[in-house]
Design brief:
By secondary structure, this protein is α+β, with helices and mostly antiparallel strands. The chain has one domain: Class II aldolase/adducin N-terminal domain (L-fuculose-1-phosphate Aldolase), CATH 3.40.225.10. It has 7 helices and 8 strands. Helix 1 runs parallel beside helix 5 and helix 2 crosses helix 4. Bound molecules: zinc ion (ZN).
Length: 236
Amino acid sequence: MDVMRREIAICTRMLVDADILEYSGHISSRLPSGDAFLIQPVDDVRSNLDPSRLLVVGLDCEVVEGEGKPPSETPIHAEIYKARPDVGAVAHFHHDPTTMFSMVKGRPLLPMKNHASRWADGVPVHFDASHISSVEQGQELVRTLGDSNAALLRGHGEVVIAESIVALFADVVHFVENAKALAQAGLLGEVEPLNGEDLERFRSTFNREKHARKLWAYYSVTAANKGVIPSEWLYE
Ligand SMILES: [Zn+2]
């Protein structure tokens, strides 16, 4: 089985199992050609996503290969791939405890845990609370995102970007963990976020690729044990 297709299906199913994805939201991965990406059909159930069903979609959001329609918010993915050559994988999801940080005045999503060094410069909040379903809306989101590696969509959800599906999975897990930590720490008292120096010190000894592989191994083997993914997928 094609490795990229399998990784998207595994990532999607594991994020459902982690209560981060549910009946909507989607993961995509840029194909090596650079001008197309894989994404699931709009109505396929995330918890049972079949790698062979993934669509090949061009940067104009037109289906190049596969059966079915891509998600209505596919312009999120296409416009990010157009604007950011460094990006190999995109996640869009609607995780309420994280989205909460787009809803409260004076409460930005601060870096509380060391893995939030990925978002050391802050997490921009996009003004448009509607579905990002046109090229123009996708371009507006890209302007909000700038050089950041994640954005909150006001009253709607999140976008997280990374170089690969394996790295993306780790980033999404840490992004959500950081938001939860901030909400919980705030209940105890005045929060003390990590500062630029703290985060730089962490980054200087951190092996991102090794860490992402470790998370992937833990979550994928656990997912196979629980029947979330077929165990054959671990060895193909
Ligand atoms: Zn959405």
